[in-house]
Amino acid sequence: AESDPSLNGVCRQIVVNSFHEYAIPRSKLASCLIELGYTEDGSVEFFKHKTLKVYGLLWHPERVNVSVNEVNQIVRNIFFGSR
Asked: How far is Cα 56 from Cα 66, in angstroms, rounded to an integer?
């Protein structure tokens, strides 16, 4: 995945909660979007628009999991900029 300010202060591998069967295969991500995170099976879980400040998360950041600190950091970085 590409380096992005939303990932500042975050390790590269995190655990996220996915409580649905919706997925975007890496090969099907629109050309105007950049993949920032994906699963072992190749599904995109985190992406952004190439030119706009538009991000997409395909997991539930509001649900606590083992990577809660990293997930919270990503959300803070998106909304408030990396610090």
From this structure: 21
pTM of the model: 0.81
CA distance readout (Å), 3 to 6, 20, 21, 37, 43? 8, 27, 27, 10, 18
> How many Cβ atoms are within 10 Å of 44's Cβ, its own excluded?
22
| pLDDT at residue number 83 | 55
The amino acid at residue 29 is L
DSSP character at residue 62: T
Residue 64 has what DSSP assignment?
Answer: -
What are the residue ranges in the chain where pLDDT is below 50?
Answer: none
Residues with Cβ within 8 Å of residue 14, at least 6 apart in sequence = 37, 67, 70, 71
Q: Please report where in the chains the tokens 């992005």 appear, as a residue.
A: 4
